[in-house]
């Protein structure tokens, strides 16, 4: 593309629409701030090679000392085509976009600490009971060559996730429901926007994008099972939040 844009690197899969929640958090911000951007799709087994090639910084280190490369990554040429900014790590990218492009802020004034705490809860606590349910479903939707790469022990080495027994599966759903109920009880303290559909009570913010990114993962990976079950919980709150954020779901 001849004009300057922000390039967002995302995971290729057999699903027609993107699903990865951390990457969706960044896509939400780009859409909300109306920043021109495009998506480059990368096979999971080619992530490290691609990110090394574009000069993206690693996000950590393995026990053997090898660098860890993960998505999302952005390349920002909006401010300078000759000296692009290349960033990794979802939190680093979000902070950069908010600081560099302050119009239409995702964190209302005075709310950064509360927003950071909410997002930390979503990614470290809220999402954990969902992982044994969603990771096997997600694995099935990766291209076969990517699944084979993981079976051989690729950079994100994991064997194919084992299917849970029926009792384990139901116990996992009990834990998921507890987290959704707890979060609903907190959001119920807001009354100015449909009984607290959004975290700040009235306008969407970064907290909502972090939460809705998880809802999109559920919807895209298991629309007729997991999403059909969850979307009407707590009086349809999660369906309404998904709908509230829909205008920022464009994929370019």
TrEMBL record:
Q: Does the keyword Transferase apply?
A: yes
What are the entry keywords? Answer: Transferase
**CDD domains from the UniProt entry:** GST_C_family
In this chain the Glutathione S-transferase UstS-like C-terminal domain maps to 113-248
State any single GO MF term: transferase activity
Gene3D superfamilies per the UniProt record, alphabetical: 1.20.1050.10, Glutaredoxin
Query: Record keywords: Nucleotidyltransferase included?
Result: no
Protein name, UniProt field: Glutathione transferase FuA class
Q: Enumerate the InterPro entries for this protein.
A: GST_UstS-like_C, Thioredoxin-like_sf
């Amino acid at each position: 593309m001849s004009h300057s844009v922000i390039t967002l690197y995302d995971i290729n899969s057999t699903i027609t629409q993107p699903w990865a929640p951390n990457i969706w958090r960044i896509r939400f911000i780009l859409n909300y701030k109306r920043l021109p951007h495009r998506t480059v799709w990368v096979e999971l087994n080619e992530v490290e090679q691609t990110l090394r090639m574009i000069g993206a910084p690693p996000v950590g280190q393995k026990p053997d000392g090898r660098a860890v490369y993960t998505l999302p990554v952005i390349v920002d040429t909006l401010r300078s085509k000759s000296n692009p900014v290349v960033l990794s790590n979802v939190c680093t990218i979000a902070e950069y976009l908010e600081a560099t492009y302050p119009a239409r802020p995702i964190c209302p004034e005075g709310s950064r600490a509360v927003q950071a705490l909410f997002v930390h809860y979503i990614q470290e606590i809220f999402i954990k009971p969902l992982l044994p349910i969603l990771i096997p479903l997600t694995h099935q939707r990766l291209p076969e060559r990517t699944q084979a790469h993981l079976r051989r022990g690729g950079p994100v080495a994991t064997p194919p996730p084992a299917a849970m027994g029926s009792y384990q599966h139901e116990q996992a759903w009990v834990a998921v429901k507890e987290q959704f109920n707890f979060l609903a009880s907190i959001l119920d303290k807001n009354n100015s926007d449909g009984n607290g559909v959004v975290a700040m009570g009235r306008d969407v913010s970064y907290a909502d994008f972090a939460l809705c990114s998880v809802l999109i993962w559920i919807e895209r990976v298991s629309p007729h099972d997991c999403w059909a079950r969850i979307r009407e919980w707590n009086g349809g709150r999660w369906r309404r939040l998904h709908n509230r954020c829909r205008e920022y779901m464009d994929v370019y």
